[in-house]
Amino acid sequence: MSYSRQTNTRSDSRGVRGRNRALAEESTEIAGMTVHITRKPIKNMYLRIKPPDASIEVSAPQRMSAGIIERFVTERKSWIERAQRKMMLAREMEIRRGEASSDQGVPLDGNPDNPPTFVWNDENRVRAQRNIETQLPDLLATWGPIVGREPTHITLRIMTSRWGSCTPKTGRIRLNLQLGLMDPKFLEYVLVHEMTHLWENGHGVGFQRRMDAYLPRWRQLRRDINRHVVL
Predict the structure, then answer these.
(1) Terminal CA-CA length for the chain
(2) Among residues 64, 80, 166, 187, which one has the fewest Cβ atoms lying within 10 Å of its Cβ?
(3) Contacts of 87 (CB under 8 A, 6+ apart)
């Protein structure tokens, strides 16, 4: 289940069929949070916390200013954070109850007999950072020529709702430090995903077409990684 909020509660039922048609998409940082904004032919603005990674999704009218959207999200930051915590806690509890698949119940150390709990400490941070930094040079050397663009800067940090993010205007990519404690195929997938955003802001047809060309099995990798809890 996703969590959502709406502003401008009056709505017009006319033209509902066209509301699913995205006119433009972008990801941006608002109040320290990564927000995916989709412009649509709608009259009201909608805010959703979307499973499985509790990402923040905003649907906004085509001509609404960036300032109004930023204020709308900022004013609801407390609600967003509560909804994200609730969603991630519910997901973790589901895993512990054994209602999810066996992949979801495997903790970071790969031992399915242990409960999927984890605490960040200095040792884990160092190990995760070292693992990522060891892999990045070869990954960039491989995927830079394929994608056709490379990030200007890569930041590693603990992220509570995403595996990675990208700011296309600056070329900066952020990777979740947790990737350094997971199967290397996930670091590769997230890096290629974010590098593709250097061409495409959103996840529309253009993004999907590029990912199909770069990494044909990306949809399966996305399903696999989203079975894991973002810590």
Answers:
(1) 19
(2) 64
(3) 2, 3, 49, 51, 54
